Amino acid sequence: MSIPNDIIQYKSFFNFKDISDNPYVFFLEALTFSNKELWEKAFEYDISNNKIICNHKYLSKLLLNLNKILKGNLNMYGHSFSKNDLVLGNLYLYYIQFISNYLFGHPEAYEPFKNDDIIKKAISLSIESISDGFYDDNILFNFIKKNFLVQRKLTFNHLDIIEFQIIVPNTPIFFGKEKITIPKTYWNIKLLITE
């Protein structure tokens, strides 16, 4: 089983142009925006100690905002995993369409996977790991440094682009007593910060 050669190419609403040679890397863009003010209020940069200081009240609000965005509707752009049209939805819906296409050759045969607890847990844990990273000083510092630290000053701009990668590990699917392993996939989600 593999990705078909005659897959659909989707356009980005925001003109993102990402490509990958790996057929199991997919690109999504959030259709909801992140609030610039939350980012500005959540973080400060301590120059003397070279560290990020968090305002936990606003960090909590920011993480709720990010969680809602990452679990909300997303637009796939770039190469698809199918030669058939996909149903617009959240990461979970795209993933079960991927499984359906992988197993049956069509993305709309996903009904058997709609309530699969293993799949739900894998997607949920992957999204939660993003929020967890904001509580790890090293991960947070590297993320903020890469995206917002410009000449030793935190700079949050209207239409800044943030990218998160969600890795869904090899997932076992059971048909009666038969076990089929779905390959590891990488879902890169871009979102915009707006005023």
Describe the protein.
It is a single chain. This protein has 195 residues and is α+β, with helices and mostly antiparallel strands. Helix content is 33%, strand content 29%. The chain has one domain (28-194). The chain has helices spanning 36-42, 56-71, 91-104, 117-133, 137-147, and strands spanning 9-10, 25-30, 34-35, 43-46, 51-54, 74-79, 149-150, 153-154, 161-168, 171-175, 178-182, 185-194. The strands form four sheets. Strands 1, 2, 3, 6, 9 and 12 form a six-stranded mixed β-sheet that branches. Helix 1 (36-42) runs antiparallel to helix 2 (56-71). The radius of gyration is 18 Å and the shape is elongated. The termini are far apart.
Instruction: Tell me, briefly, the overall form.
Output: elongated
Strand content: 25-35%
What is the number of helices?
5
Total tally of structural domains? 1
User: What's the count of strands?
Assistant: 12
